[in-house]
Each structure stands twice: as C-alpha cells, then as structure tokens.
Amino acid sequence: MYRCMADFFATIIYRWLAAGDAGDLDAFDDLLLPAAVIHAPRGLSTTSREAEKAVWRDALAAMPDLRHHVQEVLVGPDIEMARVVVTGTMAATFAAAPGLVSAQELAWYPGRGLVAPAGPRRSPRASYQLGALLRHNFVNFGFFSRELYELAGGFPDQYCCEDWLLWIRMVRAGARVTMASHPTAVHRVRPGSLSFDPARTAQSGIDALTAELRAANSPAEAAAARAGLRALRGKLSFYRATELAARGQPRKARRAAFEGLPGGGPRAAAGLLALLVAPASAARLERSTRSHRSPVGAPSSAGGEGNQVTGSR
Length: 313
Description:
By secondary structure, the chain is an alpha+beta fold.
C-alpha cells in the first residue's frame, strides 16, 4: 500500500535527489542499497548504486546547475516514486535525443520562379537553442526520426504554428538542431495561403507562445517566451495599424501602433513609431517597399526571421 507524502523532505528519494544536485555522490552509499533499481526516463534507468553514480557524474558534468524539484512522493514498503520537474542548462551532450535538422530551402513564387534566401540559416549554440526557439522559429522543414517525434509527444492540437511547437518540444526533450549544408527543400508559396495573412499568423504564434509560457520549466524559459510574445505582439500591432492607416482610419491606426510599443526590437519599434506619427505616410511606405523586403510581398512567418516564409498548407 502506498502513501502520498505531503511532507516528503524526509523521504529517501528527496534526500537522494538533493544530494545528487549538491554533487555529494558519496551520500548515495547511505541512501541506496548496492542493488538499488532506479527507474528513469530517456534510457537512464540503472540497476545498481554504482551505475547510478556514473549517470549522475555525467549529468553534473553536462549540467552544472542541475536541479530536481520534487512535486509529490508516493511511499511503499520497499519502493518510493516521485513526480519531479528537472531543470538544468546543457553545457555538453547528455542522454542526447536524436537530432532535428532544419532545411536550407528555396521558395517558388508564381510568376517569379525559384528564389533563394538572402543567406544560409544558422543554428544557435546548443546550450541556447531552446531559448532562441522560444523567441522565434529558426527551424524550417524539419527532418527528424520517429523516435524523436514520439519522445516529444507528437504535434499539438493546433493548426497554425504546430510545427514551431513541435520543434520546441523536441529541443526541450534534448534534441540538438543542426542546419543542412545546402538547399534540401523547395517551398511553393501561393496567394491566399497563410503566408499572405501575417496578422493571423502572428496571432497564432501568440497563442502558441502563451501556452509555452505556462509550460516553461525554468525562469530562463519563461523569459525567452515573454521576449517572443513581445516581438509577436509588436508585429501584430504593426500589421493592424498599417491596415487601419490604409483604410483611412488614422486615429485607430495610432492607437494600434501605440499598443504595440516597444515592439520586439529596433526595427519593429521604428515601424510602430512611424505609424504613430504619420499613419498614412507610413502605410504607403510599407506598401511601396514590401517587394524589396520579401519576395512578392510575402511576410515572414510568426516568430521567424526576415528571410523565412511559411508555406501553404
């Protein structure tokens, strides 16, 4: 019979995890039997005390700030089980999941043909990839194994930005993102696709990151998600203000631009300030320069960089 421990600080599992987080692996000798069996995810289960010490040595070397936050403990006659939230910053490979590869893509536009991006995509350093991905989607046409897909829990129940959420889940599960060295995908963009509805795409990104903010496992993840939300809200305000200005509604355009400040960066802030000061002129300038900023006026994807275009579905 198992008991749920409200005051679990005296349990073996809590003391064992606390000792491990503190780097005191010698304390395992007093807490674990020589043949102790530890059930853990990601292939980290062990069947002896010494094997468990070896796993912890590797984990602490890869994540010096490793912490186990115990949520609840069930205690039985010869077994203890816990629900634990684990946090840590990866400084080296540990229990690596299969990798996620982002394509270098070409885009095809009606009447224009193939268009290459302004420059190759680049992947952030491994220890920063989750934070960067929570700020903006730098993965496109991801290639991944079924093992990684199942480990991440598959696609979420969301139509737009579901791929972005899947990449976040995969990196959170331990995957490392690498970039293809040459174009590996051709992306067909057509009028009427989601690529030509930037406001809807930005709103979908806001919905996605709002959910990720609630699911954040650390203050760093939460801060990255908030930064991504600020950028997307700035974009959405810019799109709405531009549309209102083009319709001849300067007062509403100014209000929409003001709500988006400070935006997600200098460029976003400059665009919003221009709409705040001279809505009609800013809207005309945006329309006249659109083709120079992205092919045939296609906006970049939610959370993406300027040379990324979201495909039709």
